[in-house]
Design a protein that fits this description.
155 residues; two-stranded antiparallel ribbon; 45% helix; 27% strand
Length: 155
């Protein structure tokens, strides 16, 4: 079979169109995974904040409140495919960090900041930071941070 000028032109056009189409398709998939991670972070922050609020109403012990935050994080870490990860606690008094042992780009993949300002008034804020690294667009990583989820309960 001999290649004609028209056949060669069709092959070259197909290659260019194929790579452009695949780039667009992979970008759409990557952005959908990014937005899924972003909304999962917001859901995790709200869930931790709600569980901390319940724990602070039942007990005014900081240890119980932080334990509730850790348990809530372990349950919801599956949203980010970190269900097999373990978490370490650091901090004292009114500011704590719960970090994942799983690292991405040299940083902890998931960090939860718990701020207990005034335990008597149940004034507690949580912020979740996730180090997202994509396959196509965000290869060097991008940190996704939730807005502070504060729960203030006044009776």
């Amino acid at each position: 079979m001999t290649l004609t000028k028209k056949t060669g032109q069709n092959i070259i056009e197909f290659v260019f169109v194929f790579f452009v189409t695949m780039s667009i398709f992979l970008s759409i998939i990557e952005l959908s995974l990014y937005w899924r991670a972003k909304y999962s972070i917001a859901n995790i922050a709200n869930e931790i904040s709600a569980n901390i609020q319940i724990a602070s109403q039942n007990s005014k012990s900081v240890d119980k409140i932080i334990e509730s935050a850790q348990n809530s994080l372990k349950k919801s870490a599956g949203l980010l495919n970190l269900e097999s990860s373990t978490f370490s606690l650091s901090g004292s008094n009114d500011s704590y960090q719960i970090k994942s042992n799983f690292t991405k780009n040299g940083q902890s993949a998931l960090v939860v900041f718990v701020d207990i300002r005034n335990l008597k008034n149940s004034d507690i804020c949580t912020t979740v930071a996730y180090n997202y690294s994509g396959i196509f667009l965000f290869q060097k990583g991008k940190t996704i941070t939730s807005s502070p989820s504060c729960s203030v309960q006044k009776f």
